[in-house]
Amino acid sequence: MTRSVLALLLVCCGCCCLAVAQDEKPSKGPKVPEVLLSDQHQKMVKVGVGQEFPQLTLPQADQEGGQPKPLSDQFGTAATVVAVWHSDGAMAKSMLRDLSYDIAKRYQAKPGEKPQVATLAIATGTPAAEAIAESTGAKYTGPVLIDESGEAFDKLGTDRLPRIYVLNSKGQVVWLDIEYSLSTRREMKQAVAALVKKAAE
């Protein structure tokens, strides 16, 4: 075998190995975490992954008689985080604080621009005054919506609060959790980052 033929074979083998390595290389960047719920918790969920978030129109806590806007008009261009909570919930304050710090501030939109990532906090079974006091105490900076009768929450599920939904640009649920914890916070940030990355591609 001549040197030129041997060199050509080595080059070809190298290209094949490179192609295989590229095919096997895992994709970089964050991915939306898988939602794993027990059978008991699944029964508490009426709107799950892959489903469209209900078309809700709720007043803002500080509107004082202003015209309520549909939630869909307040969605972000890449993602929306919807938090449903009650002022009596022990973890509500932590969730609202984290929403403001991890999402609202990190993905803050320029004045006059629609946010890439929006946050919406729905206070269910809670009067407006209590919702304002709770969100202010937690230094939450996003819109606080009022579902005092609980009708909106009835469309989403039962029992466990607070709960978090991450929606894509079409308003579909891509991730959720029906309680709030450190793992919830971590996976919420990961889901949002994955949607932002996807929107940028």
From TrEMBL:
SUPFAM superfamilies, sorted: Thioredoxin-like (SSF52833)
Signal peptide residues on this chain, from the entry's feature table: 1-21
Redoxin domain: residues covered: 49-190
Record-linked Pfam families: Redoxin
Keywords associated with the record: Signal
GO MF: oxidoreductase activity
Classification via InterPro entries: Redoxin, Thioredoxin-like_sf
Protein name: Redoxin family protein
